[in-house]
Specification:
This protein is 70% helix and 6% strand. The chain is mainly alpha-helical. Helix 5 runs antiparallel to helix 6. The relative contact order is 0.11.
Length: 201
């Protein structure tokens, strides 16, 4: 609906992508730019609703279903927020997109941490490495660490409101580090538990 209302107010070529310094480095034809994000959001919404129905661990999923639903609300709110920022920019308002994007990203990372804290072993949501999927204890410990790291990333992302020029480095580099640490931590925990089991035999 909003896309249809916005048509006469948007340029024929709309800014659609920004570089790490906040400069526009990508454009799309008006109709594509206006309708692509709503279409992606709708497709993601259908996917988010459909995936839990395929979940083998239904009992586990039911234990954190409320957190999953809240996460859906947050992620689609973030996408809508980014869509509004894109429309405002193309309408002619002047602002630093990265600066305004930071609080939205921060909330998204914080809710990701909350979801990780509460998720139980399943095939679709959470940190699914070969080792977390092989042992409930590894799953639990890895998700506890993952939640802590994502909370730190969430706080670091807020620095983009004050220092927008370094936003990319304050959230992206810690995010990559966090993902790598989580991956190897899950392997280390699995090895530790299995060494313990073998030593008892």
């Amino acid at each position: 609906m909003l896309a249809i209302i916005a048509i006469p107010y948007m340029p024929l070529l709309m800014a659609s992508h920004w570089g790490i310094g906040g400069e526009v480095d990508g454009y799309m034809p008006r109709m594509t730019a206006l309708f692509l994000m709503p279409f992606i959001s709708l497709a993601m919404y259908i996917l988010f609703l459909f995936l839990p129905k395929l979940e083998p661990y239904q009992e586990n999923f039911k234990q954190f279903e409320g957190h999953y639903d809240n996460f859906m609300i947050v992620i689609f709110s973030f996408m809508f927020y980014m869509y509004l920022l894109t429309l405002a920019w193309n309408y002619g308002l002047v602002f630093n997109l990265i600066q305004l994007m930071s609080p939205g990203l921060s909330v998204l990372f914080f809710y990701t941490a909350s979801l990780l804290e509460n998720t139980k072993m399943n095939w679709f949501v959470g940190i699914r490495t070969p080792w977390t999927m092989s042992d409930p204890t590894v799953w639990k410990k890895t998700h506890k660490l993952g939640a802590s790291l994502f909370k730190i990333v969430s706080l670091l992302t807020l620095t983009g409101m004050i220092f927008p020029s370094v936003t990319f480095y304050t959230f992206f580099i810690p995010l990559i580090f966090s993902v790598v640490i989580i991956y190897f931590y899950s392997y280390w925990q699995y090895r530790k538990i299995n060494r313990g089991l073998h030593s008892h035999h």
